[in-house]
């Protein structure tokens, strides 16, 4: 059975729980819930849970180090499970995608995302899969206020559809490969119900 770490990025604590920057945490919670799992075990400077898809064992990880130090938690998990970064899927918020979009991407830079920057600095590579959840850009140019702002109620409904779509993307990726999943899902938008 293959093991893959699925790390959702976010900031710990109730202050940040429903913010755009915590899209990775919210996705992981949704993923665990549908599998009848929970992410409550203290491990690797974070919380972990476990589930399986076919013959894939998924370690779900929510780093509790704050976003800018996400790599610390993820490296601990990779080292413990003796996995290369290529067995890592990072779920994160993405300013460059509109609300309602979710995309798979393999490798690349950090695009100014401090969580990705931390992971790349500590693993020494950008060679991991990203599941990018669109949060759009601030209409006022205030990036920090935007990413740390609460998700509006109408967008919470969109996020629920995005999470469902993301689960389907992961299932296809794990069973049929990344290219197939990208071709099927990367042009979808979940803005409308």
- Average predicted local confidence, pLDDT: 95
Question: Based on the structure given, which CATH architecture is correct?
Answer: 3-Layer(aba) Sandwich
CATH topology: Rossmann fold
List the total number of helices: 6
CATH evolutionary superfamily: Peptidyl-tRNA hydrolase
Residues in β-strands, percent: 15-25%
Give the class from helix and strand content and strand pairing.
Answer: alpha/beta
SSE diagram, text form:
Elements (H helix, E strand, L loop, with lengths): L1 E7 L14 H12 L6 E3 L2 E8 L2 E8 L6 H11 L7 E7 L7 E5 L7 H10 L5 E6 L8 H5 L5 H24 L1 H8 L8
Parallel strand pairs: 1-4, 1-5, 5-7
Antiparallel strand pairs: 2-3, 3-4, 6-7
Explain what you see.
It is a single chain. The chain is of the alpha/beta class and 193 residues long. It has one domain: 3-Layer(aba) Sandwich (Rossmann fold), CATH 3.40.50.1470. Strand 3 and strand 4 form a beta hairpin. Helix 2 crosses helix 3 and helix 5 runs antiparallel to helix 6. The mean pLDDT is 95.
Defining traits:
193 residues; alpha/beta; Rossmann fold; seven-stranded mixed sheet; 6 helices; 23% strand
Brief synopsis:
The chain is built from six helices and seven strands; from the N terminus they run E-H-E-E-E-H-E-E-H-E-H-H-H. The protein is of the alpha/beta class and 193 residues long. The model has no long low-confidence stretch (mean pLDDT 95).
